[in-house]
Structures are given as structure tokens and as C-alpha cells.
Amino acid sequence: MLITKYLNAEARFTGTVRYFPVAGASVIENYRSPDFYVFLLFEKCSGIHTVDFIDYQQKDLQLHISFPGQIHSWNSGSDTIGHKLLVSKSLIETSLFVTQFAHLKSNGYPVIDISHEVFNHLVREFSAIGHELGLPTPSWDVIHLRTQLVTAITNRLLEEVTDVTSIQKITHPVLVKFQFLVEEYFREMRSVAEYAEKLFVSANYLSALCRKFKGVPPKKIIDQRIILETKRLLYGTDMSIKDLANNLGFPDPASFSNFFKSNTGMYPKKYKNGGSSLK
């Protein structure tokens, strides 16, 4: 099972780009994605891929996108054939790769169905990157340019998906900035007023925008991001409740546990031990 075989090698990944072939069945529970981006291109596949506690059906001709720190589980069939590309955060986030997913730092579409034409385009780039990496003296300029092309194609796919599901699309520039700020400051900023101040708008205006375009108040968006990170850390690390509270900016374990219970119906320890079905 090549997917399982390569997980340890992935965890030790320290370069900018790495390629792995994928084949065969694999079952993994609550695997915390290391600190890089992963592009997983399936030619054939069946099963379930769970990304941050949401289930996605695995099918032929799909592109799966993994962000740093996400929690993954999967049960892939024996028919699985594909290609995996690991790309460092620095290459994605500090290079000239202007991509929707890197800009928003939000993996809203981790699984995308693709056409035969798009698959053939992507598989050529994945295979060429793998070939170049296997040379005695690989050209990193070539590797990085081909990786940039993969991210550009992915960005176009995400834009197409977003257009199709326009009802969920963030259409106001203030909300784009708000989501970016939540991703950056959710550990230290809890109140809507703090975010509104950074956005140079009133808290009431930010609330009106969130309700209009997202259907929820801004406080719910902030709290949901904290809850997601809590779940990631509960399943992906061995941190104590005290360490979790400290990591997420709570003054003490009690306030952290009460916050989590008020949003999920369970205390953190109970959720980790028996709440895996709670999405």
C-alpha cells in the first residue's frame, strides 16, 4: 500500500517539491497533514476521504487538495491509481503563485471532479515533475515552473467550482479580508469589534455583510474557526487540555472546555474519546 508506505517519508519532507506515485488500497484514521500543501491526482479511485470531519466520495478523475494542519481519514479501494505532489508552504505562500486557495488560506473545496482533458494536462505535469526530481541533477527552475502551472490550473478549477456554487461565494471585498484576518488572528482575537476595527468598518456593518452573504453572524465564523482548530489538535496531536487552551488563546482550561461544549455539545475529552461521529 504505497499511500501508507510514503506517509513517514512525507512527514520528513523538508524541500520545496516532492512527488510520489499512488496505488492500491489504504485505510488511515485521523492523519494530521504536515506543514505543506498536497495535490493528489486520481486516475482511478473509490472509497471515502474525510477532510476536517467532512466526508467526500472518492471517484475516478478527481483532484484532492490538502492544506497544512488538516485532519484526514480515508478508506481507498484497491483500484486506486494516482499521483501525489507535495509543495512547501514557502513556495505556495511567498512565491508569485497567485492562487485563490493560498490567498484565502481556506480549503473550501478539497475535492474537485475534473474532466479527462484536465486530468491529462495535470498528469503530464505531475509525471514531468516526478521525472525531473529523479534525475541526478534536477533543474529546480523547471520543477518550480511546472509546479506553478499545477497551482494555476488548480486555481482555475477552484474559480469554476466557485462560479457554479455562486450562492456560497464570498462576493464582498470586506468579507474576503475578514476571512483572511480570522485565519490569521483567531487565536488571539475573539470579538467582532476587533476585526471590524482592523477592517475600518463598524461592527454592525460587518455583521450585516456576514448575514447577507454568509447567512451567519461574524461571531459564528470566528467561533467555527476556533472549533475547527480544536478538533484538528484533539485528533492530530497529543496536547493536553491545558496546552490546547494555551495554544488557542484561552485564559484557562475551564473557559476553553466550556467554550467547546457550548459549540459542540461535548467537552473536549469526551469529544475526542467518543464524539468522532459529531461533525
UniProtKB/TrEMBL annotation:
Keywords: DNA-binding, Transcription, Transcription regulation. InterPro entries: Homeodomain-like_sf, HTH_AraC. PROSITE patterns: HTH_ARAC_FAMILY_2. It comes from the Bacteria. It holds the Pfam family HTH_18. SMART domains: HTH_ARAC (SM00342). The keyword DNA-binding applies. Residues 176-274 form the HTH araC/xylS-type domain. This is Helix-turn-helix domain-containing protein. The lineage of its organism: Bacteria, Pseudomonadati, Bacteroidota, Chitinophagia, Chitinophagales.
